[in-house]
Amino acid sequence: MKSYILPGIPVVLLLLCAQGCSTPPPVRYPPPVVEQDGTTPDVPARPVAPGGVQQKPGPSTVMASSPAVVGLLGQAEKQANSGDLEAAAASLERAIRIEPRNPLLWYHLATVRLAQQEAAQAEQLAAKSNSLAAGNRLQQSRNWHLIARARQALGDGDGARAAERRARELEGR
Amino acid sequence: MARGRKRGRRKSRRKVVRHRSSPWLRLILLLCLLLAGYVVYLDLQVRQQFDGKRWSLPARVYARPLDLYVGRELTADQFQTELRALYYRPVKTATQPGRFAKNRDEFHVITRPFTFWDGQQNSASVRVRFSGNKVSALADAATGRPASLVRLDPVLVGSFYPAHNEDRVLLKLDDVPVSLTDALIAIEDRGFYKHHGVAPLAILRALWANVRARGVVQGGSTLTQQLVKNFFLSSERTLTRKLNEAIMALLLEWHYEKDEILEAYLNEVYLGQDGKRAVHGFGLASHFYFEKPLAELNIEQYALLVGLVKGPSYYNPRRHPERARVRRDLVLDVMADLGLVERDEAARAKNKPLEVSKQWRKAINTFPAFLDLVRRQLQRDYRDEDITSEGLTIFTTLDPQLQWQLEQTLASGLQALGKGRGTEGGKLEGAAVVTSVQGGEVLALAGGRDPKFAGFNRALDAHRQVGSLLKPAVYLTALEQPQRYTLATQLDDSPLTFTARNGTVWKPGNYDKMSHGKVPLYQALAHSYNISTARLGLDLGIDSIVTTLRRLGVEQRLNPYPSLVLGAVEMSPLQVAGLYQTFASGGFLTPLRAINAVLAADKTPLQRYSLSVRAVVEPAPVYLVNTALRYVVREGTGRSLYQVLPEDWDIAGKTGTTDDLRDSWFAGFSGDHLGVVWIGRDDNASTGLTGSTGALRIWRDLFRHFGNPGMNQPVAENIEYHDIDPATGLLADAGCEDAVQLPFIVGSAPYENAPCARGAQVLPNPVDWFKELFQ
What we know:
heterodimer; A: mainly alpha; 0% strand; globular
């Protein structure tokens, strides 16, 4: 039977792939107090806040998946391998409901859509995964490989080659 | 011989006979023909009723099922509320589905089996523990082994009824407890399995039984006759009617098996009235009277239901509990007489109270505004009659916990805002939408301050000026041109007079009636300055802003006038949510969905409404706009947000106020939720509220309950941070007191040092950033 999901890569390994995190530099500045558009004047502005606006956010994706999500991934894989791709998609959407910012789940959903001949949506979902996978080069390269396949399926040879190039660059080849 | 004689005789009287009996014969023949025709007609009718569309089944609308897993944000109280909404019964020891036992923060729950869009789910017996605001442990109750994920059955939030307002919960005979059918047959038609549809003797037998019991315990007509009577919903008691019933009953028996007829009866019999809605069948009656599925009832409850068949209104247990009780006990006696129950069990059952639930809550749709949205989304794919009569099961995205919170917050918020304004205060109306940021699922929706009012749905139908809510689209248009605009770009907020080609003069002003000279772009948005935004919009060109809005999914008519940049466009709260969804989800247009899946009456999947996304804006410029939207609530117009919310919550949002304070808006999002709140009046008079003194307060009270959402928005690939001196928009260093850290699309940051910067600034090497771009 054809495996649509996780070609040759164990789930757990993917879930554990860590990613870099840059520590934001300290933040300073007393902000000006300006009223506009009806702000209550007695409310002071809030200059410093941990995780607040002046800080560069930390790692973007939560890769340590909960057992619930790992279970759903396994279920989706089983469903996809037995040919029930729509059920696999439903399981992945359920997982996304639990961990909406986990790029791996979006990638798998893209894989299922590609297997369902929905190449355009597959490309979009892989792009979504990319947008959530900042700093995670492995995931990004996998997304670009998938985008390449989707574009190929859509008859966009040039686009597919460009995507493949991106994928290889991310792999450092 | 005899024959010949007869013939002869006939022959001899031929003329006479012909003349005397021929019209009679003809008449009889005609009558027979007519009768035969009539019987055929009745046959057709009765079979049509029985076979084809035996019952029109309303669509059932369910909330999202609650997924339980360790780490899920959910309090023990919320969990219990959900169980209550599911009519799970609290017990000391849970032994069967639909029951739960609670011991401090630990629950033992036995879930009900349920058919979801991904198949049948069996009952599960689980232990759930809560600590703080989270599920802290989840285990199989039998083995004690940890469970990774448990799904409860979903809360039924409403139904779409056909015009004649019949309702049912369809039963299969195999699912009906034998005690119930035994009792029914004992009371209503003891000869059911023997007769052919009509039982003349039954009338006598019933008479005898009634005399013996000193009351009416049996009726004369068979179950089959009663079924026919129910099919044609007529209570007239004429002889023809009775005759028709008898013929049809015979016909039914001729065509169908006893069990088929019994099953039909169980689903058809009229058992009560719920306002305008007729309660048909034992399945729904069980919910209607006991708020439980039939399988979970006990013997005295079966007896009560069976007793109701005779006269649902006369024996109505809510209105006439004593009559209902006497009737129930009579049924129990008959059952004991026939050996269907042990005597002592019957005696025990007779001592039990009626235990009828106080009020049937599902009579009205619990969340009319949300159901309105569901119905409209369904209407794109289904005809009205299919929605109301095909027995569809509709799985929606509604989160009842959020919905209750929203309804409560909006009502109390509006009341607080209206306080001290006399009758005017009561005229404040509001609407709100909450969606999931990445999935675009509509989780909660309020169409007005009275959540039970199924009228004007402001969340969908109040199209109001959006004012400053539109500004992010203007700033996005700018920031998509990193070589021209960055967050640090100094915008001109000095007075502006614009004369259109047709001679119209436009003089936008700031809310504070002041102009602010040069302001960095991010602050112009954070403080919602009108003049600098108008100037920016004019520089960009109105058409390009229209294009941006279209890309963001705005579909309504847009007038390409300069006033557009300041929000001269009318949108509903739901449409605003759609617009902000794209910002919240990092540039991906995610159509808002209220429905996840639809099942047919036989529980086969009909349709799934799946998650789909479309990249419409590059992540980097969206990231920049969202950064400015964080400044809105940190130091701009929305900064009163943090009077209530903890400082470490990462929120982005925008206030909106329209002319004369007619509309008060706030649209904002955290990592998980997007919320849009609108306050205004139906007569479009002034509310006296700005975005931040009105809608924002309700928004923050609402989001306070959602827990720390941690936006944790991923930094787009080609973003780099620089220290900036806001006064000049140039690079800052340790020497600059007021420096802020701002994100830039790689290569777009200023090269020059601000006057306050003392040290030499190392300029980024163009080759380096070019390399970085492809990492």
